[in-house]
Specification:
Helix content is 27%, strand content 30%. It is an alpha/beta fold. A hairpin with a 7-residue loop joins strand 7 and strand 8.
Length: 225
């Protein structure tokens, strides 16, 4: 059975600009993995991570990671705000039972809980002021005993980014092959900084560098007395 798509409302401001960028980039997004990153090496980095049960993937993009998660999940839900990205992801996951949701993550409310929430190259798109509500959302989305698993860029990636001056949130310029310029939130956190921040938000986490440019981590809600 092909995956289905559910639609929910979006938001404005920096999030709207970021969504517009990914909508415009959908047809060339996969080139990132062939030109700048080694997908086989990155995929290997998550093999030992605790991904199982009912899995939620946030910001699934074109489904590069969705196909890997599907092999390890009892059920899989993949969410993205860009319908163009979801079209590619549905094509990639044709013949599977993957459930697709179209929604702005910052406006979305989960309708169930999951054993694993997975984020690939999304956490760096969460502005500092949104970290607390975002991780509250993740806690809400997790079933008891569940965990958040993530993969992202490290501060070394700043070398290839074009920072936007005067933006209200940390933002970079991105230029597509058609010459159009877009804005996206980009917050590059090192493992120690991120672990400390998550600890302050009530999470137990293990975050580590997997190479000079990428980090990975696992976070679980800290039990309260």
């Amino acid at each position: 059975m092909n995956g289905t798509t559910e639609q929910q409302g979006g938001t404005g401001g920096w999030s709207e600009q970021q969504i517009a960028y990914y909508r415009a980039r959908a047809d060339e997004y996969d080139g990132t993995y062939t030109e700048r990153m080694s997908m086989p090496r990155l995929a290997k980095s998550i093999e030992a991570l605790p991904i199982s049960g009912d899995v939620l993937e946030l910001a699934c993009g074109t489904g590069q990671w969705t196909r890997l998660l599907y092999r390890r999940a009892r059920s899989l839900t993949a969410l993205d705000a860009a319908p163009e990205m979801l079209r590619h992801a549905r094509d990639r996951m044709q013949g599977t039972t993957t459930r697709f949701i179209e929604a702005d993550i910052f406006e979305w409310e989960p309708d169930r809980q999951y054993d694993t929430v997975f984020l690939a190259f999304w956490l760096s798109h969460v502005p500092p002021a949104e970290m607390e509500p975002f991780w509250y959302l993740l806690r809400w989305a997790l079933a008891p005993g569940g965990c958040v698993v993530f993969l992202d860029d490290s501060p070394a990636k700043a070398e290839i980014e074009e920072l936007a001056d005067g933006a209200p949130v940390p933002t970079v310029h991105r230029t597509l092959t058609d010459g159009s310029r877009h804005l996206a939130v980009k917050v590059l956190r090192d493992p120690a900084e991120l672990s400390s921040q998550l600890n302050g938000l009530g999470w137990e986490s293990h975050v580590e560098a997997i190479d000079p440019f990428h980090l990975t981590g696992v976070a679980r809600p800290r039990e309260t007395a």
